[in-house]
């Protein structure tokens, strides 16, 4: 059955229904004949059927936001009483991204063949992680799929909003510094040599600052290509080993948590994701030990991931969650105390949600404060780099004017 699903191709069809009304749509099938047979069973007379070969090959990549929107749409339609297969038809055919259309229609085909929703989703681990699949499975077993999908959508929306906030704060200084480096390189390679030829006609000694900048310009002109190649290779090697070396990721994540300004924000973001995931999983009725496995992967930092797995192992032996969190020394006392209250009162999900709300708001405030602090700092760095080069070039002219 799985083999037949992998051989299915997307087709676009046009036809008329029983009332003679002209309709069209898209369908996954093994052949044109299969499409026509399926349409006949639905009471549709096919006029044309053609394979949509570009459906799988074009369009933008599927993002986490697309998956969050998918969960929200599916939850809303199921709550409205729409059959699941029809939900997938509406979502798939109505989506703007061809790749998302392919994904949704592929899941629909699996469900039509008798596969459960969580099994169909698990065939696409690139888009649906263990947390998503486990929550859907819990919803199917409890008969509350639409409620769990609503929780998944809320979880995805909140975590994505948190990530976007942090990325936005880090993007601005990175972009400005990149522009500063590019502008400085252009000045050193193209502009300063013109001034150098002008200064040679003066026949006088240049100021030390100007001479230093001219020497730097000569060095960049002679070795610039090698510098660019080395920098590119170093950047490639960094990202290559960061992706594949767990010790390197551990070192970088630990250093990031201790970095000034950015470090406290990353700590709060990791705690917010920890609490939000724990709340969502526990509210869905997932056992705590099993939930902590998904929580570990959702923290976004290998230091907190390993600490959460250690917490899971201790909880599995009968240790209280509060006590296990204390031993990691990674969680503030307020978080530990609120988790303790949640354990004692049997409301761990709601207390974890309160922790997540608090730290998400704290991250928002910290990011805004960091942005307001970094903007003038970046402008000052840019001014020193570019302004310093300009001043160095005009110093001999000022000196010549004073002599005249």
Which structural traits does this protein have?
404 residues; mainly alpha; three-stranded antiparallel β-sheet; 16 helices; 76% helix; 6% strand; flat; disordered N terminus
Folded structure, characterized:
This protein is mainly alpha-helical. Helix content is 76%, strand content 6%. It has 16 helices and three strands. Strands 2-1-3 form a three-stranded antiparallel sheet. Helix 4 packs antiparallel against helix 5 (98-112) and helix 8 (145-200) runs antiparallel to helix 11 (262-283). Residues 1-6 and 54-58 have low confidence and may be disordered.
Describe the structure in brief.
The chain has helices at 2-6, 32-41, 64-79, 84-94, 98-112, 117-122, 130-142, 145-200, 208-244, 246-258, 262-283, 288-298, 302-316, 321-328, 333-345, 348-403, and strands at 9-16, 22-29, 45-51. With 404 residues, the chain is mainly alpha-helical.
How many separate helices?
Answer: 16
Instruction: Report the structural category.
Output: mainly alpha
Over the alpha carbons, how many angstroms does the gyration radius reach? 30 Å
Task: Give the helices and strands as they follow along the chain.
Answer: HEEHEHHHHHHHHHHHHHH
Low-confidence runs: 1-6, 54-58
Going across the major beta sheet, what is the strand order? 2-1-3
Strand content bin: 5-15%
């Amino acid at each position: 059955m799985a083999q037949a699903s992998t051989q299915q191709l997307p087709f676009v069809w046009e036809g008329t229904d029983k009332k003679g009304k002209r309709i069209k749509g898209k369908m996954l099938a093994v052949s044109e004949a299969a499409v026509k047979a399926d349409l006949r069973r639905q009471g549709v007379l096919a006029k044309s059927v053609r394979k949509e070969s570009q459906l799988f090959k074009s369009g933008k990549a599927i993002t986490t936001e697309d998956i969050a929107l998918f969960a929200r749409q599916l939850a809303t339609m199921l709550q409205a009483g729409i059959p699941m297969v029809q939900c997938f038809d509406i979502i798939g055919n109505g989506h703007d991204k061809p790749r998302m259309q392919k994904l949704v229609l592929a899941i629909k085909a699996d469900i039509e063949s008798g596969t459960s929703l969580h099994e169909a989703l698990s065939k696409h681990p690139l888009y649906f992680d263990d947390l998503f699949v486990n929550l859907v499975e819990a919803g199917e077993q409890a008969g509350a799929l639409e409620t769990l999908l609503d929780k998944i959508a809320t979880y995805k929306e909140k975590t994505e909003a948190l990530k976007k906030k942090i990325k936005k704060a880090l993007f601005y200084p990175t972009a400005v510094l990149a522009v500063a480096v590019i502008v400085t390189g252009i000045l050193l390679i193209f502009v300063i040599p013109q001034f150098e030829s002008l200064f040679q006609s003066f026949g006088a000694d240049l100021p030390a600052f100007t001479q230093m900048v001219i020497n730097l310009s000569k060095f960049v002109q002679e070795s610039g290509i090698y510098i660019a190649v080395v920098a590119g290779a170093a950047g490639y090697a960094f990202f290559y080993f960061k992706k594949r070396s767990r010790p390197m990721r551990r070192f970088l994540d630990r250093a990031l948590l201790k970095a000034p300004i950015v470090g406290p924000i990353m700590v709060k973001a990791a705690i917010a994701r920890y609490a939000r995931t724990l709340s969502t999983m526990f509210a869905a009725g997932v056992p705590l030990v099993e939930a902590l496995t998904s929580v570990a992967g959702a923290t976004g930092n290998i230091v907190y991931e390993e600490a959460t797995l250690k917490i899971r192992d201790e909880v599995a032996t009968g240790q209280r969650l509060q006590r296990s969190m204390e031993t990691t020394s990674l969680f503030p006392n307020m978080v530990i105390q609120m988790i303790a209250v949640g354990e004692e009162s049997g409301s761990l999900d709601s207390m974890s949600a309160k922790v997540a709300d608090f730290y998400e708001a704290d991250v928002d405030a910290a990011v805004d404060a960091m942005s307001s602090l970094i903007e003038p700092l970046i402008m000052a760095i840019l001014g020193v780099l570019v302004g310093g080069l300009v001043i160095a070039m005009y110093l001999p002219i000022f000196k010549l004017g004073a002599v005249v």
